[in-house]
Amino acid sequence: MSDKQRILIADDSEMNRAILTEMLGEKYEILEAENGQQAIEMIEQNSDIDLLLLDIMMPVKDGFDVLAAMNQYHWIDELPVIMISAESATSFVERAYDLGATDYISRPFDMAVVRRRVVNALMLYGKQKRLMQLVADQIYENEKSNSLMITILSHIVEFRNGESGLHVLHIRTFTEMILRKLITLTDKYPLTEPEISLISTASALHDIGKINIPESILNKPGKLTREEFEIMKTHTTIGDKILHDLPFQQDAPLVKVARQICRWHHERYDGRGYPDGLKGDDIPIGAQAVALADVYDALTSERCYKKAFDHDTALHMIMNGECGTFNPLLMECLVEISEDLRHKLQPGADGRDFMAEAQQISAKVLHGKDLPEQDNISRALAATTLKTDFFFHHTHAVQYDYSAATNVLTLSDWAVRHLHAPKTQQVTDETSQYFISTDDVHKLQGLLRATTPKAPDIKMKAQLPVDGEFRWHRIYARAIWSDDTSPVYLGSVGECHDVQGVSLPDKGDNVSLGSADGVQTMMHGMEQIFDVVRLVDVKNNTIWTFDEQGKLKATHHPCHAVWNKAMPCSNCSSYRAFTQQSQISKLEFNKGNTFHVLSKYIEVDGIPCVLELVSKLEENPLMTVDGRSMLADNMSTYSQALYRDPLTNAYNRRYYTEQSESFANAEGVAMIDVDNFKSVNDTYGHQNGDEVLRLIVRGISECIRATDILVRYGGDEFVLFFQNIPADIFASRLEEIRRRVESTAVPGCPNWHPTVSIGGVYGAHPLADAIHRADLKMYEAKQSKNRVAVSIFPPPPQRDFDIE
Question: What is the pLDDT of residue 249?
């Protein structure tokens, strides 16, 4: 293989590819793709590509489609992308950067610029890869240290038991081998790699309860009496209690799995085990696997009361039911890995050095000798604490640290002095007198709990009483999640920046913060200029007004009534301005008249609103002689061609890709797949297959509102977005769609009735995560077909107070 760095050039122009290849010279190995689809396939097949030079306008799939795929499969994290395009419009450049592009070069190409930016991108990502490897190495060392400590603890028990110490290693190895074989034989237990690793690690603690069993019973050379055996059996419940009473977070996956294994690794599949007599799959699969591994190792190892059996004899005894009844699938796994197990029993098998280290430390503990010096993990934690304390004491800003477990808020020293607040306090409704208002506390908690480990950062605006004066601040906060397979929300940290009178960054550049009095006065002045001046409550599709005291007051007047519409607008500019916290301008055509609408996001006394300013254009130069609007007609036709699927008239993937911000906060997301659609094309022909899709889309459209968005996601799959819909209505609406499709008759397919499998999630964010979850629910529904599977996400959290 060549030592040269590999660069993929994706451009539909052969000339452009040739020019770039010539500019880069022979220093790099060049790969070429003629369109976006080919580029995606080449990236998938070549994991050693170092850089992608990507054009935007290409056939089949364009450059933005390639970036979207790279984000979907997380290639963008490791492969730098330089956009190369003649499109220099700001919108194109911003979108490329938003999708993860590293750099943007406009045509015509300058050789020096191309070469320098290629070198810079490769150097930057080279350093990033080295840093990632350092982090990966550190994580590996931490995991190794954690595994070592668990093994040490387990060996203390094994030494008391008079055993060789290899029992713990054997159980971990055999358990992992059994589970890895299990997932190749059946889908009944959909274990992931991290889950198998977790069970294998936790298996080392299976006999920890023996630490409380008298040595006279543990090491008795002969058969135990009934009374002694009853005492021995208690090691299962003792181990469970030991882990329960330790100061660990009980929801942590390792603790939960270890407790299950401790308590139930002597249960049997027929219900004749102990301590609880569990039967079948009432026993967690991890405990079942450890039970089988434990019996096999007990048979093949020498004990104080028995000699070791050889591998074949042990296998025969287990399969013959002489050691209790086990899950038939696990027995099949045992047979499949039989030869590997035989090899693991040979002297010199892997892991002896690791075990020797654990045994030495265990022996020191048992004999009262000093432990080695404090390990690197403890030192690192101590150093991190010292660093955190330093910055917390010396910052000149409002910073906070919140623990969800204790519900305690800790403020930085500067915040304590200028907010005149206690250093630490329980978060209650009274917290607002020192920090932010009760409503803002609820809002902040809600935003943080709605984050994910992959997207933990949020920002919001609030007023803080700095030195007795309420001033507007931008709060930047990060949710802290536990780092395990089932992440738990642990709390958050944050910093508050004073933005009173300062333009806000990002989408907040156009955000105005004002008091009710000031906004009311401003609106009175604007009424002299605009035909309509109003504040819109976007969440409820109504209008805000002011009460007699000049405070903002909610009404029940629908905002769409001004356009003589019975339903909210499907392309509401105010909704977009609200969700993007920006200013949106558009033309509205209504009954032959043209209106200019300006929607601007503002906050009135901290309440988010949209200021809507409407002007009627008296003379419309775009009107034809018969009164029709050329612009309206042309825009409608253009939009239809650009964003609509020509077969079904549902929105297409381009609409989903380019307009996703407008429905990014949809409460409900559903994936819909037509059952057995291939059989329609095969039996009745593609023309009838097309008619099936048209009829299904028509049926779905009759069940949804004008504001809901139906996108043909690909082939016979559709995605449906619901804005402002209660959870129970969302679920019933999906069931209504399923029934409506089932009742559809297809004239060209007399012996076939369409059905759909629907997966829906409610309350999941961000959008990509919601679609992924909906897709998983859809595949769950497809197992039986013609079914709706819905998940309300996230489940109601254990809150310290209500979140409005």
Answer: 64
